[in-house]
Amino acid sequence: MTEEKPTLSQLPPMSTVVMVNGMSDRDYYVTVCDACRCASCWHGEFLCQESLTAGTVDVLASVLRAEGREHPGCFSVEKLMEVCGSVRYAP
C-alpha cells in the first residue's frame, strides 16, 4: 500500500510561515544533487563534475545549513519558490 501525499489544501498556508532573510522558521526539504549535496547544482546554476550522472536526494534545510557547502540563499524558501514553484515543509 502506498502512502498518500497531502493535497495542496492540507498543507499549511504560507501565511503561517514566518520568513526572516528568506529563511523559514519551519524546517523544509531541499532537493539536492546526491554527489555534491548542493541545491545550486540541482538547479543547474553551478554544476559539479558528477552532475551528468548524479541523482537527487531530499535533505532538510537545517542539515544543509549545518554542512555549510553553499550559501543558505541557494536553498532559501524564496529561492525554492522561484526555481521549483513549491516548498515541502517537514512535519
Would you mind describing this structure in some detail?
- With 91 residues, this protein is α+β, with helices and mostly antiparallel strands.
- The chain has a domain at 28-89.
- Helix content is 20%, strand content 19%.
- The strands form 2 sheets. Strands 4-3-5 form a 3-stranded antiparallel β-sheet.
Main β-sheet, in a few words? Answer: 3 strands, antiparallel
Which bin fits the share of residues in helices?
Answer: 10-25%
- First-residue to last-residue Cα separation: 21 Å
In the predicted model, the low-confidence regions spanning at least 5 consecutive residues are: 11-20
Strand order of the largest sheet: 4-3-5
The H/E string reads: EEEHEHHE
What is the count of helical runs? 3
Coarse structural class = alpha+beta
Oligomeric state of this protein? single chain
Could you tell me the radius of gyration in angstroms? Answer: 14 Å
Q: Hey, roughly how much beta strand do the residues contain? A: 15-25%
Number of strands: 5
Morphology: globular
Q: What does the average pLDDT come to?
A: 83
